[in-house]
């Protein structure tokens, strides 16, 4: 079965210059857990909600509740560039692979999502999350 049947192609991505604050808002506003980091259409990394867990507290406290030193520290954390916290060694597959190979990669590397790359252009063309696979499996029952 082709990856086209399960992968998300309406991608939400971030540039490497995006801040952690922007990435957290993108994840929350878009209701996603994995945010590919892209430069000129090419995947250079990925951040997940787990990667950004430690940065949520300053954002949740809305910074106003901190004294000046705390506010400065919270802003410094939230202004960290995504490029500085992303996983740069990304498990990915090309768009000619099967759903089974994506599942094998997820299991082997213990990841919840796998970006899909066009092998000719090397551009990011989609992402497959465990939710996408479960949704597809459910539709087959």
Automatic annotation (TrEMBL):
It holds the Pfam family CBS. Residues 7-68, 86-141 form the CBS domain. It comes from Plesiocystis pacifica SIR-1. InterPro entries: CBS_dom, CBS_dom_sf, Diverse_CBS-Domain. PROSITE patterns: CBS. This is Acetoin utilization protein AcuB. PANTHER family: CBS DOMAIN-CONTAINING PROTEIN, CBS DOMAIN-CONTAINING PROTEIN CBSX3, MITOCHONDRIAL. The lineage of its organism: Bacteria, Pseudomonadati, Myxococcota, Polyangia, Nannocystales. Keywords: CBS domain.
């Amino acid at each position: 079965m082709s990856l086209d049947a399960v992968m998300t192609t309406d991608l939400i991505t971030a540039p490497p210059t995006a801040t952690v604050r922007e990435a957290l808002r993108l994840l929350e506003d878009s209701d996603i857990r994995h945010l590919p980091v892209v430069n000129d259409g090419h995947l250079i990394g990925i951040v997940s909600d787990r990667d950004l867990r430690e940065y949520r507290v300053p954002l949740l406290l809305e910074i106003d509740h901190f004294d000046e030193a705390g506010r400065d520290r919270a802003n410094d954390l939230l202004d960290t560039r995504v490029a500085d916290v992303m996983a740069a060694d990304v498990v990915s597959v090309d768009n000619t692979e099967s759903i089974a190979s994506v599942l094998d990669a997820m299991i082997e590397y213990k990841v919840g999502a796998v970006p899909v790359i066009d092998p000719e252009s090397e551009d990011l063309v989609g992402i497959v999350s465990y939710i996408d696979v479960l949704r597809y499996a459910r539709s087959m029952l």
